[in-house]
Specification:
Blueprint lengths: L1 E2 L8 E7 L3 H10 L6 E7 L6 E5 L2 E5 L1 H4 L2 E5 L1
Antiparallel strand pairs: 1-6, 2-3, 2-6, 3-4, 4-5
Amino acid sequence: MDTLNDLPVGKKGIIKAINGGHGFIQKMDAMGLREGIEITKMSKQWMKGPVTIRFGSNEVAVGYGMAGKIMVEPI
């Protein structure tokens, strides 16, 4: 399994785990990011900037550190 940071731009993956405390998991859930959903990595920024992902009709950006806690399985 890779982190969201490791997934290449334009590729799809399925969220397999979200590693973090209760607050972090709750924040991801509020954004709609949960285990089992299919995501597409849309962009990443230079120098450990935010990562933009799309799932369903939503597009969100998460920080580099947060993306490192989201485990994905490439598809």
